[in-house]
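Support reply, case 0932

Customer input (verbatim):
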Amino acid sequence: MIRIGTPRALFFYQYYPLWHTLFTGLGAEVVISPPTNREIMAGGLAGMVAETCLPVKTYAGHVAWLRDAGVDWIFIPAIRSICGTDFNCSKFLGLPDLMQANVKGCPPILDIDVDASKPERTLERALQAAGLRLSKDRRRVDAALAAALSTHHRYQAMMRDGLTPMQAMVQLGFLHADEAPSTFHPPFTPPFQGGAGGGKASPLTIALVGHPYCIYDTYLNHDILKRLARLGVRVLTCEMAPAEGLMQGIQRLSGEWYWTYEGEVVGAAGHYFADPGVDGVIAVAAFGCGPDSTMLAVIQRTARLESRAYMSLIIDEHSGEAGIVTRLEAFVDMLARRKAKTR
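Our regenerated output:
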């Protein structure tokens, strides 16, 4: 049986159920790397130049772990466009080549080239081509792909209903229950107790916007979701917003969809800024990310013009836990005091 490795980083949070269903449907065993840890991070840092952003360094560490696990292939997509008129980060365009060049002893790569501007390179067609490399039976490939797409649509619907990617993957059977604590999603709404000033208890809702690999990798961000939950905050993420809401958010803040995953950042921020039930927005981004630097500037400008509570958290390999915790506590405390004054 062919063993295909899938790094638990970057696109994993959007597409893993899709990939897993396709490859297992074609008789392959799918191996995923463990959650990011110190050893995986060290492996990525050792192979990449310092100027590379933290998420790509982390991805290299996961590829190195899969190499050591003895997989036959590593699945690494190159995603150029998902809408046809958008642009992606250059590192994502050449991700397979980047890993091949920088991870010593990298196993053979099963890659796909996704470019929605070309009919022959849509996500569906690209996955079909990958499937044909595993099986020459066209009907079997098409059946596995249909099942994979059905799983993907169900996965997206579950997240729009209020689950995080990790929770949805647990319910679908792709992850173990201990990999997705259940205290993050909207039903968890205990009150926040005011800080040093003794503010009154006040339930708060905060939207956490950013790319999934920044929000859900608990090692990179020092477990922001759990820390907010412990502060009694109801957390909303970009996956929980409707697709039309993300599009309207982009149109309101920047006018047009330019970057491939802009909906996760600008679109989500614009959507939640317009929601009176959201008390504040926190954007999480990686230091050195060119596209994110432009998107955060758009969000910050809108927050200032509309007098919306907003904070950005920039993470890299030097980010300290204490600094992030202090900023989160101060932001939540400020929101609680502001909300108490409006009653």
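We compared this against your earlier run and they match. Two observations from our side: The two ends are 63 Å apart (CA to CA). The longest helix spans residues 138-160. Please reopen the case if you see a mismatch on your end.
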